[in-house]
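Anyone able to model this chain together with heme C?
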Amino acid sequence: MKTTSITTLVFGAMILAGCGGNGGNGTAPARTNPVAACLTCHSFTKGVKRPTAPNLHDIVGKPAGSEPGFRYSDALKNSGIVWTREKLDAYLADPRALVPGTRMIYAGEPDAARRQAMIDYMQNGEGDQAQ
Ligand code: HEC
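re: yes, here you go
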């Protein structure tokens, strides 16, 4: 009985410490980059262009589809969206629900707190960082 409750406490403490939320690989990095999943396609560093996806430096407040030379989908280009925090939140929760026909292949982040961390990261103008 005693062993069981101590085990429960230890697991509880691990969850509170955030060990449960890093993709389940069993190791807990000291700091997890909230936009790690985006870096395969996007750059967040000012001026860095990638053919795969538009640059996201300073995206908060910009109209959708505004990177010169990037081949956006018609759906996004013609969406009329301005990337407020609310619109970014909706796009990151479910890109194809907000912009049917978007070329962004990303299933969506169901966790609202993680979406907020991503948006904070973009608004703070941080560049690409490993982890
Ligand atoms: C598989 C590649 C890929 C991944 C992963 C990805 N994106 Fe995208 N993203 C794209 C593409 C391609 C577009 C352009 C979509 C279009 O034209 O419809 C885009 C567009 C966007 C836009 C609109 C940019 C603009 O100029 O209007 C935002 C904001 C965005 N992505 C955020 C993110 C965030 C945040 C993540 C990580 C959670 C992410 N994306 C993950 C490929 C990706």
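Residues 35, 37-38, 40-42, 52-54, 56, 59, 64-67, 72-73, 75-76, 83, 88, 91-92, 102-106, 109, 118 surround heme C (CB under 6 Å).
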